[in-house]
Amino acid sequence: MHIWQDRIAPSSGLVPIRRRQTVGLLFAFFALLASRYFLAPTSHAQRGSPIQFQMPVHTRNLSGTVSSDDAGMDGIAGVDVKECTRDWKNCQTLAHTDENGRFSCPAIDGGTHSILFQKSGYIPLGFPVIIDPRAKSGFQVRLDPSN
């Protein structure tokens, strides 16, 4: 067994890759893989309304608040909370935020769901939500104005 550090193992003829380089390459590979899996806005982008995506959220239930920098400390009322197919082509409205920007979808099953937050005047935001009974309840969503 060879110990690979900064030397070439004479019997193998292979050039070793340093441990730090290996970790960096693996991180870059998995980041690219995750971006292709989670960040694939096809249908909404084709319709002319780009979607911002973020990494998955782990939560006990699908509830929380939606706000924006331009709304100040208040939440945004009337945001559509939609569950979409994995390819983001078909969406069904689950709820709307109330006058304080709060939403709740208690009837959603466990597992991974593609959730889209959308309101006229704001850039739509979509991401996977993983319903996990061990996670904390609720989360906050921040929408950016479209102009």
In brief, what are we looking at here?
This protein is of the alpha/beta class and 147 residues long. It has helices at 19-38, 43-46, and strands spanning 52-53, 57-59, 62-67, 80-84, 91-96, 102-105, 111-118, 125-131, 139-142.
Question: What fraction of the residues are assigned to beta strands by DSSP?
Answer: 25-35%
Rg, please? 21 Å
Overall strand count: 9
Instruction: Say which CATH homologous superfamily of the largest domain is assigned.
Output: Carboxypeptidase-like, regulatory domain
Label the overall shape. Answer: globular
CATH architecture of the largest domain: Sandwich
Written overview of the protein:
With 147 residues, this protein is α/β, with parallel strands linked by helices. The protein has two domains: 1-38; 43-142, Sandwich (Immunoglobulin-like), CATH 2.60.40. It is 16% helix and 31% strand. It has two helices and nine strands; from the N terminus they run H-H-E-E-E-E-E-E-E-E-E. It has helices at 19-38, 43-46; strands at residues 52-53, 57-59, 62-67, 80-84, 91-96, 102-105, 111-118, 125-131, 139-142. The strands form two sheets. Strands 1, 2, 4, 5, 7 and 8 form a six-stranded mixed beta sheet that branches. The protein has a three-stranded mixed beta sheet with strand order 6-3-9, with no helix packed on it. Strand 4 and strand 5 (91-96) form a beta hairpin. The chain is globular and about 35 Å long. The termini are far apart.
What attributes does this structure have?
147 residues, three-stranded mixed β-sheet, alpha/beta, Immunoglobulin-like, 9 strands, six-stranded mixed β-sheet, 2 domains
